[in-house]
């Protein structure tokens, strides 16, 4: 009996010791917020401590970093990160390893997983891939991963969640400013005339709804359609990338669309439909400025052009939300 008890006690000690070592190891944030900031694992990459220098090679991740206030350790960026707050940083690519080392970069953030060769050539610089969000729910995953990578699996994870919530709270506020017309107009966003559009299962497709419109391609998937379906949908409003408006007007197939004939085609800066930080607020606001310019009348011009108190109230509300955004 004593021998049996001795083996049982030894077994319990072994289990407890093993659990202690597990507790001291890295926490995979895919399973939730980490107990400690580091070490943590994000998408298969383990970070043992906070990176002292970060190169962000994704305009989308850069937008999330700025939205969450995580930019303190940024040392470099890619050319497409044109955000004004990052203009001081040098433009690099994933192949500029020596330049990154000279800047003190220890972590590189990218949208898609690097090749084995790129990983091998990084020579001590960790490369972490964080994919864009596919939906509102998936957006929290994006912000958690970015926040955790920048400042830790507890601090950054939590701060990222809050930043994501704030973006969508503001989007909800903007939506409430949309005038009630009794009719929900159809709209779409065209990246090009080859069938690349913002569909309903994408985060960018949902921004059309935040602007108060019904997405003409809300039932389509993966941002791809047969472009001839544009003729069938015949959206009331068309938002598009620069250059697409002229193509529509010159096309024998599309120049007779109602939106084209009636001047309801509006071009937008492409980055507005590529970034998932505070830029999404600019995206919805830009759509509304095209369709409801009266919402964005300045206080000075309101005094000169409108005696309507209801109009003044709406414009004041828009001014308030725009300033907060």
Describe, in plain words, how this protein is organized in 3D.
This protein is of the alpha/beta class. The protein contains 13 helices and eleven strands. It has helices at 2-24, 59-68, 97-103, 116-121, 136-151, 155-176, 203-210, 229-233, 244-250, 258-261, 279-291, 299-305, 309-324; strands at 27-28, 40-42, 45-47, 54-56, 74-77, 107-110, 126-129, 186-190, 214-215, 237-241, 265-268. The protein has a four-stranded parallel sheet with strand order 5-4-6-7.
Tally the helices.
13
H/E topology pattern: HEEEEHEHEHEHHEHEHEHHEHHH
Record the strand order, biggest sheet: 5-4-6-7
Largest sheet: 4 strands, parallel
| Straight-line N-to-C gap | 72 Å
Overall form: elongated
- Average pLDDT, all residues: 86
> What is the CA-atom radius of gyration, in angstroms?
25 Å
Total beta strand runs: 11
Q: Give the proportion of residues in helices.
A: 40-55%
Strand share of the residues? Answer: 5-15%
- Low-pLDDT residue intervals, each spanning 5 or more residues: 1-5, 7-24, 305-325
Q: Structural class, from secondary structure content?
A: alpha/beta
């Amino acid at each position: 009996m004593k021998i049996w008890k001795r083996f049982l006690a030894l077994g319990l000690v072994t289990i407890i010791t093993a659990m202690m070592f597990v507790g001291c190891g890295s926490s995979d944030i895919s399973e939730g917020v980490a107990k400690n900031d580091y070490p943590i694992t994000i998408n298969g990459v383990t970070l043992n401590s906070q990176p002292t220098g970060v190169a962000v090679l994704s305009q989308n991740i850069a937008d999330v970093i700025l939205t969450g206030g995580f930019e303190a350790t940024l040392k470099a960026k890619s050319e497409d990160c044109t955000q004004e707050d990052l203009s001081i940083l040098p433009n690099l690519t994933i192949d500029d390893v020596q330049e990154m080392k000279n800047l003190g970069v220890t972590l590189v953030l990218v949208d898609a997983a690097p090749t084995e060769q790129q990983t091998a050539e990084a020579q001590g610089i960790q490369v972490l891939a964080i994919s864009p969000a596919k939906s509102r729910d998936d957006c929290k995953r994006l912000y958690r991963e970015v926040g955790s990578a920048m400042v830790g699996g507890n601090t950054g994870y939590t701060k990222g969640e809050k930043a994501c919530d704030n973006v969508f709270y503001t989007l909800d506020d903007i939506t409430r400013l949309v005038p009630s017309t009794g009719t929900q107009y159809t709209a779409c966003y065209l990246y090009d005339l080859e069938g690349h559009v913002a569909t309903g299962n994408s985060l960018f497709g949902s921004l059309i709804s935040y602007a108060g419109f019904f997405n003409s391609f809300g039932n389509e998937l993966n941002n791809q359609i047969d472009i001839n379906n544009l003729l069938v949908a015949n959206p009331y409003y068309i938002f598009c990338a620069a250059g697409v408006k002229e193509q529509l007007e010159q096309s024998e197939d599309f120049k007779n669309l109602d939106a084209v004939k009636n001047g309801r085609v509006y071009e937008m800066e492409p980055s507005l439909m590529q970034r998932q930080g505070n830029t999404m607020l600019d995206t919805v606001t830009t759509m509304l400025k095209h369709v409801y310019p009266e919402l964005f009348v300045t206080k000075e011009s309101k005094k000169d052009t409108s005696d309507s108190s209801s109009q003044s109230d709406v414009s004041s509300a828009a001014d308030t939300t725009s300033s907060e955004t």
